[in-house]
Each structure stands twice: as C-alpha cells, then as structure tokens.
Amino acid sequence: MSASAFEPQGKPVRASQSEMTEVVLPNDANPLGNLLGGKVMHWMDMCGAIAAHRHCGSYVVTASFDYVEFLNPVRVGELIILKASVNRVFRTSLEVGVKVFSENVLTGTRLHTSSAYITFVALDEYGRRKEISPVTPETDEERRRYEQAGVRRQHRLFLRQRHGKLA
User: Are 134 and 13 contacting, i.e. CB atoms less than 8 angstroms apart?
Assistant: First the structure.
C-alpha cells in the first residue's frame, strides 16, 4: 500500500514507543504464585499511557481495553517486560498496542504472555478533548497495525451504537 493512503505526515511510531520492566513480587500474585491478571492490566495501562502521552504531548485517559489475552502465566520472581506502540491516531483518540513478555531471570527464557489494544483520549489542561497529530507508520508491520486499528475502531463504534452508547 502506498504512503498516500495514510493520514498526513505526523510523528513516527518509534518516537513514542515505551518499554517497562517490572519484577513480579508475592504481593502481585494469586495463591498459586502466578501474576494477577488485574496487575498485568494495570501495568499494560501504564505502559500504553506513556506511549500515548509521548505521542500527544498532553494528558490522556483510558477509554477502552480491547482484546486482552493471557497466553502464559507469569511466576513470582520473574520479570515482566511490557512494550507499547501507537497503532493509529483518530481525531482525539488513539489506539496503542501493548505486548507483554515474561523473562525467567535464571535461564533468560522469554515468553509472550499477554497482549491488548487500548484506546486513549487526549485531553488539554482543562480536561477537554484535544486533537492529536497523526502517527506515521514506516514499516510493513506498522502499516499492518495501522490498518487493523481502523477495522477495530469501526467494530467498537458499531458496538457502541448498537448498545445505545455515545460513539
């Protein structure tokens, strides 16, 4: 697909990517010693918000979490690595993809443990919605995520309309 099919020139995806690393402690785990799903989502929200803040240069609030997936458990004592990238910008909102990995500190083995798509809304200093500059996908992978984010947005808007919520 040609670059002209995308939004006008904006910030590249790489300019706002974020990465976080945390160690999983007993307080973060369930009785089986596995990281709580809610804690994973909290860290996903934080890592995604950092990427969104960087892109927007403003405050952002979480509007929705889509397709949260838990693939492998994370054990107490392991590291959790979260990576977030802006997939696509709409007028006042943006979708950020977050991918999570666990790392065994003794073996160095990494496993993909979770993924999610998070929509954030940009706000100005008065708490009003703010227009956001576009994101410019540069790689084939970034262009694929850009296109798929548009499809997911249409699905979200359809569901909101169907359930009588504001779009």
Answer: no
Question: Hunting for tokens 């500190």 — which residue is that?
Answer: 105
d(CA 134, CA 15): 12
Burial annotation 75-108 (CB, 10 A radius, 16+ → b, else e) = ebebebbbebbbbbbbebbbbbbbbbbbbeeeee
**CA-closest candidate to residue 25, choices 35, 13, 17, 16:** 35
At 144, the amino acid letter reads R
Q: Where are the alpha helices (DSSP H) in the chain?
A: 37-56, 140-162
Domain ranges of the chain: 9-162
Torsion of CA 102, 108, 109, 113, to 10 degrees: 10
- With 0.85 as the threshold, say if the pTM is over it: yes
Q: Are 99 and 82 in contact (CB under 8 A)?
A: yes
User: Which CATH topology does 9-162 take?
Assistant: Thiol Ester Dehydrase; Chain A (3.10.129)
- By the 8 A CB rule, do 50 and 118 touch? no
Tens-place pLDDT, residues 94-144: 999 999 999 999 999 999 999 999 999 999 999 999 999 999 999 999 999
